[in-house]
Every structure is written in C-alpha cells, then in structure tokens.
Amino acid sequence: MVSNNEELVIENLDKTYYLGERRINALERINLQVKTGEFINIIGPSGCGKSTLLRCIAGFEKPTNGRVKLRSNEIKGPGIDRMMVFQDFEQLFPWYTVLGNIVFALKVTKMIATAKERKEIAKHYLKMVGLAGFEDLYPHQLSGGMKQRVAIARALSVQPRILLMDEPFGSLDAMTRSTLQEELIRIWKETKVTIIFVTHNIEEAIILGDQIIVFEANPGRVKEVIKNTLSRPRSPEANDFSQIWERIHKLLGFKNRERVLEERNLIRLFQEERELSLLPHL
Amino acid sequence: MKKMFWVLLCLVLVTGWSFAPRIHSAPVEEIKIAGQFGLVYAPLMVAQSRKIFEKYGLKPVWKEYGSGGAVREALISGEVDVGFMGIPPFLIGWDKGCQWKAAMGFVVVPVGLVTYDPNIKSLKDFKAGDKIAVPSPGSVQHILLAMAAEKELGSATALDNNIVAMPHPDAAAALISKKGIKAHFTTPPYLFEELSQPGFHLVVDDITIFGHPFSFNVGVASERFHDRRPVVYSSFVNAISEAMAWINANKKAVANLLAPEFKLTPEKTMAYLTWEGMNYTTAPYGLMGFAEFMQKAGYIKKAPQQMEEIAFENVLAFVGSRAGGRSEIEKIQYK
Amino acid sequence: MKVTKLKKKSMNKTLNQGLFIVGVMILWELVARAQWFPVLLFPSLSSVFVNLLTELVNGEIGGRLLFSLYLIGAGLGLAVVTAAVTATSALISPIISDWVQALMAVLHPLPGIAVLPIIILWLGTGPQSIIAVIWFSSIWPLITNLHTGLRSVPATQMEAGRNLGLKGIALIRFILLPGAFPYILTGLRVAWARAWQASVAAEMVFGASGGEGGLGWFIYKKRFFMEIPSVFGGMIVIILVGLLVERLCFEWVEVRTIRRWGMTSE
C-alpha cells in the first residue's frame, strides 16, 4: 500500500537559542529516519534537547535549520497526525470528565459527526487503556497513572500516525510505571501506531524501544543509535539486557558540576521559550 | 540658642497675657453649636470673631456639618446643644418625636428656582427628564417646590420625579456649565452667582410661593438643654441677638471680615449682604405656614395646633398673642 | 463515615451561626424596647420589619430594588465586556499587557466613588453617572482576575489544545476561558460586591433623581425624612439581596463548575 515505509524523516535539523548574548545549540545537525509502526526511544541527559526534538516534530517549535517531514510533507505546525502525551499530569482538561476529554478531542477535530458515535469511540479507547467504568470521573479524582492513561486514550482517539511521548511515565512511581510500560506495548501492538518516546530512564528505553537513540548535550546531538532486538517481553534480569544497559550508561557518561549548571540554565531557557511561543498562536 | 531663648520667652509672655483676663470673668459654660458653611451663617461667624459668646460667659464649640440632615442628626444624638436648620427639617424631626423647639428665627434670605433654559418660564414648562437640583429631600427648597407644584400643577408631588439631591456648590457648578440639571432651587450666594450669568433667570421665588418672607433657618434647641441649662440657653439667644444687631449696623465691616472666608472681594460680599430681601433677624417668619402645608401634603403626620408646641417662650413672647384676631407678627407665621 | 461527619460539622456551624443571628436580633429588640437610646436613632427591630413589610406591599422597595438591579446589571455588564476585550488584547500583545498592568496598578486602589465628581461633570447627574461609577468600581477586579486567570492556564493544556488543531478564538473559547474560570468567577464575585457598594454609595452621596433612584436613594430619602426604621429596612434588603445572589447564583455556579472540576484551591 505504501511505497516507502519511511514515516518520519528529520533532515539536518538545528535548533538554536540565545541566552542573553550567548548562543546555545540545543540541537545540532540531527538526522533521523523513523519507519512506520516503529517504537523509537530517545534517551539523553537533561538539557540534551531530546524534548526539543519532540516538540519540533509535534510542530510546537520551528527548527532553526533543516526540516521534519512526515511522509514527505514538511511539518509546519501542530496537527492531529502527531499527538503528544506530556509528562505533566495537567494535560487533561479539568472541566471535562474522563469521557468528556476524549469526546471533546473527537468533536473539535471533527473526526466524528454524531455525538452518539463520539461517545462510543471514546469508550472504546478508554477500555483499551483499562479505564472502562471511569468515564464520569473528573481528572482531579484520578491518580497520576490513570491521568496518563486518559491522556494516551485521548491522543489515540484521533488516530494519529505518530504518538509522541515526552517522558509520560516520568512522574509515576516504579510500580505504576512498569504496569503502564507493559500496557503501552500492548496498545502499540494493537493499534500499530508509530511511537517516539523520550525518557531519561535507561531501563525504560530498553524495555520499550526497537531503536534507542542516545543523545549528548551541549550541543544536543545524536551520539549513537542502538538497535534493540531483544525479544519481548523484556526483563531487566536477562543477560543481554544488562549488556545494552551498560553500553547506554557508558555513552551517557558522568557529568561534572559545570555541566549540571549549564543544563539548569538550558532548562530554564526552554521553559521561557515555551511560554513565549504560546502567544503568537492566539 | 540665644534666639531660641527669646522665642520661648515671648511665647510664655504672650500665653500668660492671653490667659490673664480669664481669672476675672464669670464661670465659663461650654455650648456646642452646629452650623453649616455659608453666607447664611454670618451671625455665627461674626459672633465668633468678635468673641460675643465669651462676653456672655459661653465657650462655644463649633461643629460644621455638610447638610441640614447631618445637623439634625447631631442634635438628636446629643452631639451638639443647639443647631440651625430650615423649618421643614425641623418640623420633620418634631413630627417624628424629637423633643425640641425653635429658639429663634435666624435669617430671612431670598430663595429661588433658577434655570438657564429660556423655554422654562413656569413650572408647567418642566418636562419629564428636566432635573431640578435641591440640597436634599425634605429641605426648604424641596418643600417650596412642592408648594409651588401644588399651586401651579395641582399636586405637591408633581415634580418629585424631577428632583435630584445635590449640595449647593456642585449644583451651582452643574447649572452654570449647563450639565445634567436644568434648574437649581437655591439660596445666596449661589442664587446671586447663578442669576449673574447671561440668560439665567428665576422660574419662581419664595415670595410668590409662600406669599411673604419666611425664616430660611431657625435656631433649634432640645427641650432637655433648654430646661436643664436655662442660663446658657438665654445667654446663647442674647449673644446671637447681639451678633445680628451688629451685622445690621456694620454691613461694611462684616463684608471686610467675611470676604476672605468666602474667598470673595469685600465689594462682592457687601453686594451679597445687602441684596434685596436679605434680613438677619431673630424674629420667626412662617413657622406655622410650613407646618400646615407639610401636613396637608403628607410630609408630616401631625401639625402643631398652637405655636407653643414648636417654639420656646422667648419666641412666643416675641410673637405675642393678640386678643381679637392675629396681629401682624402673628399673621406672618402663617402662609 | 468521614463525609457524614463533615456534613454534621457544617450543619453545626450553620446552626451556631443561625442562633447567633437570632440572638443579636433579640438583643436588638430588647435594647430598643429598654429605650436607652432615643427611639428615633435606635428603632426596635419589630418596627423595622413592620415598616419593611408595608413598603414591600406598597411596592416602593420593590421598585427601588429593581432599579438598583438594573443599574448594577448595566454597569457590571459593561464592565465584563470591557474587561474581556482588555484582557484579551493584553494576552495577544505584550505591549498592551504592560499598559493594562500599569493602569491596574494606578487605578485599582482608587475607590469608584472617588471619581464620582468627575463623572458628574462629564456625564451629568442621573442613572448614566451611577452606571459609570459601577463600571469603574467593578472593572478592576474583573480585569485583574481575568488577566491572572488567563495566564494561570497551564502551558500543557494550551499545547494539548493546539495539538488538537485549536488556535485563535477557538483556543481562547475552548481552553483559555474554561481554564481561567475559577479566576473569572472570583472576579465576578468581587465585582458584584463592589458594584452594589458603588451603586448605594453613589446614590447616597449624590442622590440620584427622585423617580429613578435605587435602594441608595431610598435610604438617602428616608434619612432626610427621618424615617429611620425604613433606613434599616433598606439596609436589610441590601443584605438579603447580597446573600441571595451569593448563595443562589455564585455558590450554585461554583458547586456545578470549579468545585466539581476540582479547580478550587481548598
């Protein structure tokens, strides 16, 4: 059906910020190809630009140089073919119920014409993420893990080509995190959606990804791309698991004090940049 | 340091000297007097600056209020011993059960309804949206307007929907700038100021409405004060009488004295003091006339049958009671 | 268990407060009847209520109340529209945002009633001036809350909205306004309280016009005719309307919106 299976191509992407007089290369010459249905993991130290890359793919930010192409079309802005799931528990709309959040997504994207159908589809996705029966609760009544499940269901409901996940399990406890990882793999297999998953947790990267892209910071660059062919389900106890773990750990390296400070500056800068970037879209 | 010493010495001498005469004078009685600001209160200002109260053994404590209503409330609460107000506010209080009576007339002044609109020649010419400013509901001006409305339009309340309550200075400013209000029912000096504007004219005046002059303000004292401190009461009446007599005999000096207070030239003050109709007199005018009208129009529930219900003995003695029909001075108490 | 306990506690509180108010009312009646103060200044509560009833029956209070509500509705309505336009422009343009903040800092502390003399000079006396004072009194809490509220919406929610293809007016309508709703409600509450105060104060300082006055004018007029029980009656009506609007309107909305959504700070 599809002649080439390159879902997403990133060509020579640079992203530069200015911190006062200083120029910071958040991302430098990034080149990546993602195939349809792949599960890609991006891992790197904080401030390496991995989130920035995800935001460029989502269309929230524009690359300084280079481009991101989705099935040969250059990305100009946000769109429902690339849905983002954030780390932040606040991503759900608190004024809608669990069901309402998904129905709203289906309604504003004009995906589904009738209210009845929208409700059915929303229920279907809630069932997929294991939240059948929780339709009428409001987000504030949910636990962190449940909130992230709703966010995944909402993102999937509009049938994106790519699911972008920015450390979605980063704020969860270890138990919930590992349950959700398993379920995500199940959902991925079920929906065959392409997933780009950002994490700073080596174990998570190995459990989830087909490919693990290791980033280095300042400038943010791809250090190495690791093919992960471990058979699923993957267990950290396995021998080859720890081999990959050691390898990534080594690639990430140790950080000295100056580097930590530098990263803090960058994080702050990204935050400000993000807030400012909201204004022109109104 | 040396300079400081001389200054201190002077201070001691001056204060010592100013306290000295007290030793010889009679015991001083404090009296709290409520007034408002304006030309009407000239007798109080004269008495103050010429120390007339002190001569009668009184130590006056002045309290200035922004409206007749506030003066009345001060009297009721016992904050002051005597106060000055229009006959209608005085009667409203009396009707509601205030234990007080008129202690004297205070001043007769021209009162008039001024407009800038050449089309308004009588009350009939006021349209629904034309605003008439009066100082407050229930004030002399309001009641006069009601009297005029009854006479010309057949109903005392005919213009009630046209009135707005505004203090004199604000209303005068509004009328002169022709903003918001069409007419202002007012007294000197605002009356004089407004009438001196080109095209401003009287729609109706007090004499036309009431038939003859009336006391614009009366002095009011509580029965309690009158009964418990009769000497202070009579000293107060005498002091005011002396101040008034002095005003009438020395208008020029009064003009010079008051001009800076009103921020006017002495010439203008003089012109105001001697405007036709101005009369500083302790004689009461129109006490009963207001009462009868206000009862008929429903502003008060009961009207006094006899003057003694609303006036103290000095006023009654002054008015007298002629056998075989009312005397001239009795007649002017009625409308 | 916990819920019933809480309910009981709040019931106790209501009962306690109710008893206190009844106690104060009884004390008032007793003090008034003892006539320690002149009856004119301190009328008995029963006479106040009898008066109030008469004025309710003859329609005087009702007419005044309706007029007050009309003035407040007009002033508050204008203020809401102005505040919405201002806050939205401030959101789009950082320059306008600076201006609005400067204006808020300078004008917010100024009581609406203080601008009355100027408003009278510009607009004359009458309802339009009172509406203007109400507008001026209520606009600042509205703008301040709207301004803060719109900025309080989490960036993630905005991006989630943009991800769904929302932008411009749709983004404001579907994401920013509901997100800012807790602040909007607070703003409306404060604005309503201020509008009431302004309308009563404006009418009492500058007495509106006879036929067109609201409750402030009612109290003002009654004061000059020394009908003190009616003055208290006017006050009671103002209190009752304030309570009713707070309980019936604002709380009703609050329970159905921000409390249900878990968007309250409690």
Task: Please explain how this structure is put together.
The complex is a heterotrimer of chains A (282), B (335) and C (266). By secondary structure, chain A is α/β, with parallel strands linked by helices. Chain A contains 8 helices and 10 strands. A 6-stranded mixed sheet of chain A has the order 6-7-8-3-9-10, with helices on both faces. In chain A, strand 9 and strand 10 form a beta hairpin. The N and C termini of chain A lie far apart (39 Å). Chain B has 335 residues and is an alpha/beta fold. In chain B, strand 6, helix 6 and strand 7 form a beta-alpha-beta unit. In chain B, helix 2 packs across helix 11 and helix 12 packs across helix 13. The longest helix of chain B is centred in the last third of the chain and has 20 residues. Chain B starts with a helix and ends with a helix. In chain C, 41% of the residues are buried. Chain C is mainly alpha-helical. The model of chain C has no long low-confidence stretch (mean pLDDT 87). In chain C, helix 3 runs antiparallel to helix 4, helix 8 runs antiparallel to helix 10 and helix 9 runs antiparallel to helix 10. Chains in contact: A-C, B-C. Chains A and C meet through strand 6, helix 2 and helix 8 of A and helix 7 and helix 8 of C.
Brief summary:
By secondary structure, chain B is of the alpha/beta class. Chain B has helices spanning 2-19, 42-49, 52-55, 68-76, 87-95, 140-153, 168-176, 190-195, 206-210, 223-228, 230-249, 251-262, 266-273, 287-297, 313-319, 328-331; strands at 29-35, 58-64, 82-85, 100-107, 112-115, 132-134, 163-165, 183-186, 201-205, 217-222.
Number of helices of chain C: 10
Integer-rounded radius of gyration of chain C: 22 Å
**Biggest contact:** A-C, 31 and 30 residues
Class by alpha and beta content of chain C: mainly alpha
Portion of residues in beta strands of chain C equals under 5%
Name the average pLDDT of chain C. Answer: 87
Low-pLDDT windows of residues of chain C:
none
Number of strands of chain C: 0
Report the uncertain regions of chain B: 19-24
Question: What would you report as the Rg of chain B, rounded to the nearest angstrom?
Answer: 22 Å
